[in-house]
Amino acid sequence: MSGRLLRLVGTAAVAAHAALTPTAATAAPEPEPPHDRSVAELLTDLQRLYREAEEATEAYNATEEKLREQRAEVARLDRALARARLSLHDSRVAAGRLARQQYQNTTDISPYVRLLLARDPQRALDQGHVIGQLARERAETVGRLAGTEHRADELARRAREALDDQLVLTERKKKERDDVRERLDEVEELLASLTAEQLTDLADVEDKGIEKAQRDLVTSGALGDDAKPSEQGDRAVHYALRQLGKPYEWGAEGPGTYDCSGLTSEAWAHAGTPIPRTSQEQWERLPKVPLKDLRPGDLVIYFPQATHVAMYVGEGEVVHAPRTGERIEVAPLASNPILGAVRPDELP
Description:
Blueprint (H helix, E strand, L loop, with lengths): L2 H16 L3 H6 L11 H66 L6 H7 L3 H72 L3 H24 L11 H12 L17 H11 L8 H7 L2 E2 L9 E4 L5 E7 L2 E4 L8 E4 L5 E5 L6
Antiparallel strand pairs: 1-6, 2-3, 2-6, 3-4, 4-5
């Protein structure tokens, strides 16, 4: 049996044993193995379940990233709203002072009559100029007050909307977390239902399938000679290789555990080039490169929905965090159906 499925069986067995009391563990009957299904059918089902679990994981990761951004936006708006409210308080104080001044200077005599009755008309004109200047300053004070009130109201509205969006994302994250757990439970149930012979046969069939896919890829001429990695790509590869042997954990970004896109995004972040968190966004937003032009550090995206990602290390191999129950490893490029490749250090 390959080390891959052996680890998975151990994971499933431990989970099943933990759910039982000591008495029940000895008395419970063995699950009925699905003898009526072929190894190929079982492998297809197992791979489908893993793919669905990883798809759910990447959806969870995307929501977590949006939630992280939304929390930052809520905090930014809260700070801006606090500043606007302080400014509004200052504007209202100034407006109150203006109102008192206007009340104290109230008179029923027209400024034109005061000019005619003045002993020194020129001085009255000068005073009128000062009065005009004060009037303009008062108008500006009133305008600032109105503008500050409008800005505070707008910021308060946006802060409420941002908080509502955060609550929606939080609820979505919980649902997607539950979806991941449900998918992984299905994987464990299937593994627990298999006999040792079936597990051995599954491992053999899967390994032979990967060997054939890799051989077909190489003989097809789709791969060229490895190009020299960039300085950043070389640093990203070295970071990823230093994580070899660490467990896969869905939603994890290190340093002790990783999922597939957590590994690639952290590797490139440590190389000085931040990239999107999820495999779908990495495929959508990073520049595409043909397989024949691959160089170490490039990311290889798998499955039509772009639900898995690995980092090319050269000579037809990738380093990746495969799936639950496994550890970060170097594997053949064709370990999964290839969608394409992207290059993080050639951002448009």
